[in-house]
Fold this protein.
Amino acid sequence: MKTKRINFSKFSSIKIGQELDVNVLESCEDYKKEFHLIGSCNNVLIGDNPPPLMILSKKFDYIRVEDDKLVVGGATPSGKIASFCKKNNIKNFEFLSHLPGTLGGLVFMNAGLKEYEIFNNLLTLKTCDGTKQKDEVEFGYRYTNITSPILEATFSLEYGFNREKVELFKKMRSNQPSTPSAGSCFKNPVGDYAGRLIETVGLKGKRVGGMEFSSQHANFLVNHGDGNFKDAIYLIKEAQKRVKEEFGIELECEIDILNID
Ligand SMILES: Cc1cc2nc3c(=O)[nH]c(=O)nc-3n(C[C@H](O)[C@H](O)[C@H](O)COP(=O)(O)OP(=O)(O)OC[C@H]3O[C@@H](n4cnc5c(N)ncnc54)[C@H](O)[C@@H]3O)c2cc1C
């Protein structure tokens, strides 16, 4: 099987991790259950002892219109999907303009912004478990029950790209820090905001080593340059402990922590 050497302190959006050999999935024959799939690592925290990792090969990086559908490969970056839609006057994917990831990661997390989510216009998924219709998959807020590598997705096709929406999404992001992070650290609990809870328990702006719950937006765990896994985990556990003690709420990580304890 092919492998690819990746330096996760450069590749991951939170800039944490060592240099590792990652298995490359060319076909489902390469896949083993113990491999953990990664996309472009915008929502993962690589630990000091990660499980064996696997990434889709570049052959899954494609996007095309086929009949009345949009067909997108699992390794296609969100920016490429957004540009393709802009160029071809396709609507409903404007929210991807400023949302980093690959199609596989976006679908697995049901990524989105407010009511705009990747599942909204999804029709089918091709995985190593076969092709699934949307109604065969459980999905919700930053959640799916997918357990197999996502190779491709098809979406309904509607014309009318909306530039104003791109501006709106850009504005919605203006309160997010530009310092490296993995996006939102925790999922928002029902009826509340993780950022508000972190702030209330006194952790907004709390820094340990190079890691900090951003003073700009408390639910962003940012890396000031020399942050490491140990400091990130310390802050995550501290937030979960304090929020549980004060509010009885279990903060669930949105970030996928890849480490074998
Ligand atoms: C600055 C910033 C802002 C962000 N804002 C948002 C936001 O507004 N909304 C939002 O939803 N997210 C946001 N995120 C998080 C991130 O953009 C999304 O979670 C995105 O879907 C991650 O895609 P990825 O390819 O990088 O996946 P990764 O981070 O590599 O992986 C994420 C998860 O998907 C799984 N996965 C990846 N590829 C596959 C595949 N082919 N098959 C099966 N499973 C797979 C991984 O196992 C992992 O569990 C933000 C991140 C950053 C850094």
About this structure: The helical segments are 8-11, 78-87, 103-109, 163-172, 194-200, 229-247. The pocket of flavin-adenine dinucleotide is lined by residues 13, 36-44, 56, 74, 99-102, 104-106, 108-109, 111-113, 149-150, 181-183, 256 (CB under 6 Å). The radius of gyration is 18 Å.
